[in-house]
Specification:
Strand order of the largest sheet: 2-1-7-8
Number of helices: 14
Shape: globular
Order of helices and strands: EHHHHHEHHEHEEHEHHHEHEH
Structural class: alpha/beta
Radius of gyration: 19 Å
Strand content: 15-25%
Length: 314
C-alpha cells in the first residue's frame, strides 16, 4: 500500500493570521497556542494572529510561531485518526517532525526553537551574512560557482538548502553571496536575494551550533515512534542517540531536502501532506516528482480536503 508522509515547513512560511481560524473552530488547535503562550511567557498567539509582521519575522519569533501553528494542524489530523508513515521537516520544521514522532513534546519544542532562533540570529552580526536563491542551474554548477566565489573573495559561501531540481539556496558572507549571484546570472541562471538577517545553514553559524548543543543537553530526546528523515543525512534517524548530534549539525550544515524527498519516494511514499502555514514544500515535491499527490493543511478549508482525500488513499 502506498505510504503517506507529513512534511513540516520552516522559516519563511509564516504569515499574520496563521492558525487563527483553526483555533476558532477547534478547541484542540486553540489549546496548542495556549500551551505555547504559557511556556514562552509572551503572547505568541496574538503575534501569529495579529502581528505586527515585522515582529513575527524576527528569527526568534518565527521559529516558535511556525512550529506552534504546524503542531495545531498536526493535532487535528492525528485527532481524526490520520497517522503518517514517515515525517520530515525543512530546517526548523524538523523540530515539528520530532514532535509528531514523539521525540519531543510541544512544551519542550517551543522554548527550544525560540532559543535556536536567538542563537542563529546572534551568531553573526547584522549586515555580515546573507542568503540567495539560485534558480535554473544544475546543483553541481552552483557548487562550482560557490567554490570560485569563495576563492576570489576569500570569504565563505556555500549551498545551504538543496530544495529541488533547479533551486539551490546559498549562504555566507554577503560579498561572496553577491559574487555567486553575478556568476549565476552570467551562466544563464537567475539569482534572488532572500530577505533574511543571517547566513543560515552555513559554516558561519558554527557558534550557534555550540550554543544549541548546551540547550539540547537540558532536554530529553526520545526514541522516534515514526520514522524521521533528517536534513543533514537525507536518511532516517537511526535512533534516539543520534538526534542530539543531528540537530546541532543541522544549524550549520546544508539541508538536503531534495535527497530527503527522494529517499521517501524510494520507500513507497506517494502522498505528501504539508502540515503548517503556506505551501512551499508542496511546490518542491512536485518539482521532484510530478506524479505524486501533494496536499496541505493550514486552515479549516484545507483540513477538510485532506481529511477527505487522505482517508481514501490510506
Amino acid at each position: 500500500m502506498a505510504k503517506v508522509a507529513f512534511l513540516f515547513p520552516g522559516q519563511g512560511a509564516q504569515y499574520v493570521g496563521m492558525g487563527r481560524d483553526l483555533a476558532a473552530q477547534f478547541p484542540e488547535a486553540a489549546q496548542v497556542f495556549d500551551v505555547a503562550n504559557s511556556v514562552l511567557n509572551f503572547d505568541l498567539k496574538r503575534l501569529c494572529w495579529e502581528g505586527p509582521e515585522a515582529e513575527l519575522k524576527r528569527t526568534a519569533n518565527q521559529q516558535p510561531a511556525v512550529l506552534t501553528t504546524s503542531v495545531a494542524c498536526l493535532r487535528l489530523l492525528t485527532g481524526a485518526g490520520l497517522k503518517p508513515d514517515v515525517v520530515a521537516g525543512l530546517s526548523l520544521g524538523e523540530y515539528t517532525a520530532l514532535v509528531a514522532a514523539e521525540s519531543l513534546t510541544l512544551e519542550e519544542a517551543v522554548p527550544l526553537v525560540h532559543l535556536r532562533g536567538t542563537f542563529m540570529q546572534e551568531a553573526v552580526p547584522l549586515g555580515v551574512g546573507g542568503m540567495a536563491a539560485i534558480l535554473g542551474l544544475p546543483t553541481d554548477l552552483v557548487e562550482e560557482l560557490c567554490s570560485r566565489a569563495g576563492k576570489e573573495t576569500g570569504l565563505t559561501v556555500q549551498g545551504a538548502n538543496y530544495n529541488c531540481p533547479g533551486q539551490v539556496v546559498i549562504s555566507g558572507h554577503i560579498p561572496a553571496v553577491e559574487k555567486v549571484m553575478d556568476l549565476a546570472k552570467e551562466a544563464g541562471g537567475k539569482a534572488v536575494r532572500l530577505s533574511v538577517t543571517a547566513p543560515f545553514h552555513s559554516r558561519l553559524l558554527a557558534r550557534a551550533g555550540e550554543m544549541l548543543d548546551g540547550a539540547l543537553s537540558q532536554v530529553t530526546l526520545r526514541e522516534p515512534q515514526i520514522p524521521v528523515v533528517a536534513n543533514v543525512t537525507a536518511d532516517y534517524v537511526p535512533g534516539r542517540e543520534a538526534l542530539h548530534s543531528l540537530l546541532v549539525r543541522q544549524v550549520y550544515s546544508p539541508v538536503r531536502w531534495e535527497e530527503s524527498i527522494r529517499r521517501m519516494l524510494a520507500d513507497g511514499v506517494r502522498t505528501f501532506v504539508e502540515v503548517g502555514p503556506s505551501r512551499h514544500l508542496s511546490g518542491f515535491v512536485k518539482k521532484i516528482d510530478k506524479t505524486v499527490k501533494t496536499l496541505n493543511v493550514e486552515d479549516a478549508h484545507s483540513l477538510g480536503k485532506v481529511l477527505d482525500s487522505v482517508g481514501r488513499v490510506c
